[in-house]
């Protein structure tokens, strides 16, 4: 029997990049995975198809996140296809506009906080009645909250700092139910979101710089993060809660 057989998971932003890798890995471990997407239905269906092609189970969950009523809409879509939840992965997020403090507008600030902080907060709040005892919550953080500060990512890093606090506090509240809550903090990962500066011959210098950050001497693939999340979703991680898991390949050493 696989580690997550009989479990139901929801992965927000589960159709692309790190989210897709998480969805596919949880399904490979036996979970039935709700692949959430906000806009890209094609990508979500491709992820579902890739899971089903190797014998896994998945369904898509459409819902925009960040606005009033969005969390309720997501759960309505989820409830139509699943009865209860065992694993919640709050992965959806946006970097927003890469700007230093002088250039950040109120609209920019509100948008990145709405997607990265408000959405997972209220999604989790409404999901607790669906999450079974002994369940798992895994939040996506970033190395930016504890690593070298990047001035052009100030608003983004602040949203994830809030997620770190959310993780620790929620772990304490949900412990009596046997629910663990942890945050995974990637560094630079080779995904479509980073393709503009991390892929291709034109970005050879950036690639070399990212490789040099890790003692392992390579750039992370999305599956590297998906594998860590799968561990945190499993019973093997039952004594780990409230933790910020460095998923940078040692880049912060």
UniProtKB/TrEMBL annotation:
Q: Which Pfam families match?
A: adh_short_C2
Q: Which PROSITE patterns match?
A: ADH_SHORT
Keywords assigned by UniProt, alphabetized: Oxidoreductase
UniProt GO molecular function: oxidoreductase activity
Q: Does the keyword Protein transport apply?
A: no
Q: Which InterPro entries match?
A: NAD(P)-bd_dom_sf, Sc_DH/Rdtase_CS, SDR_fam
Family as reported in the entry's similarity comment: Belongs to the short-chain dehydrogenases/reductases (SDR) family.
- This protein is called what? SDR family oxidoreductase
